[in-house]
Amino acid sequence: MDDVVVVGGGLAGARAVERLRGEGFRGPVTVVAAEPHEPYERPPLSKDLLLGKDTDPTALDPAWWEQHDVTLRVAVRAIQLDRGARRVHLDSGEWLHYDQLVLATGAEPRVPDLPGADRALYLRTLEDKDRVLAALRPGDRLAIVGAGWIGLEVAAAARTHEVEVTVLEMADLPLEKVLGAELSGHLAALHRSHGVDLRTGVSVQEVLLGPDGPVGVRTSQGTIDADHVLVAIGAVPAVDLAREAGLEVDDGIVVDERFRTSDEHVSAIGDVANAWNVRLQQRLRVEHWDNAIRQGRAVADVLLGRDTVHDWLPYFFTDQFEFSMEYVGRPGPHDRVETRGDVEGHEFIAYWLDAAGEVTGAMNVGIWDVNDRLRALVGTRVEPADLTDLRQ
Ligand code: FAD
User: What is the four-CA torsion angle of 378, 383, 384, 389, rounded to 10 degrees?
Assistant: First the structure.
């Protein structure tokens, strides 16, 4: 392997180049990053940074790049791939040659096809965070479209700023597909107990605009006045570069268990990659922090000739009011949930079990340093009587 180019200066790209150098690769390495920042972690954007805490989200020490002779090109976008000549065209006009190209272009907020939606707030970047934080003035009214993880995290942060928050969710319960009815009901109750006006079974039809921007939303249940509107209805993978270069795209860039596209010189990792998981025997596109880190490191290992494959279970975490949790696994839609511990006190473990009694996923809420034990349980058969909150 000669020169490596990584397109995308997010967490996955940062961890890939960190690993390449950490494992002794000495060839030229360049990261092309569209944002005007060094790679940073996004989870604090909807948590500590939105609460006004002084948290540094930077993924690598600023001195690291020079110390490790990795070229970081910020505020530069890759606009075209010439796979035949193995080069990337940048919006600065240059062409960069690669021997191995890693696409780590991440995802972008989904913008609904509704009047006015392009004028709403979204949350993906540091600049977005600044805009959302500026909107969190005590007494202001914030309408949040979508009760997914980001929408609910922003709702929690906004209530801490004493903002009047209305959350509008199309489904009957927030995050029911992930948590199941009982636990999503628990989360909904928690938000309501903190003054969030969480409305479910409601569809948003328009973001209403005044002369200075959004002034509310029109919904299937009437109009809601607001000073700010945030749309948080998920993300779409940034696949344009790959698609235009003729690579297979199907809900992300399609890659095998070693993150390779059909072109042996091009890999894809992180939020943009729809990668075959050998353990779960299915293709997965995972939009989580842990996945970006693991795939970044793993693709470096693959490029260095190691026998590394995508075989780990998805993991993620959230913090909303008193509900702080880690979640591991991939339960099926019909798996049943068993809880152990104090659900009302937000200190419990939830286990997902399939029809055969095998653990398919688990979540530790307010109980820490147990997620590795839960991960080890996934895929094993456990008698319900043997499931505990792991605290004794
Ligand atoms: P990204 O972080 O999206 O980075 C991709 C980068 O590539 C971007 O900077 C983009 O500008 C750049 N790029 C795209 N196209 C080009 C191009 N053509 N040329 C150059 N650069 C390009 N996960 C959790 O597990 N727990 C959490 O609590 C959590 N909280 C989150 C909160 C927020 C607000 C957000 C937005 C995400 C959160 N996530 C969380 C998800 C997690 O942050 C992502 O999974 C992770 O950032 C993915 O990293 P990535 O490097 O694959 O992509």
Answer: -60
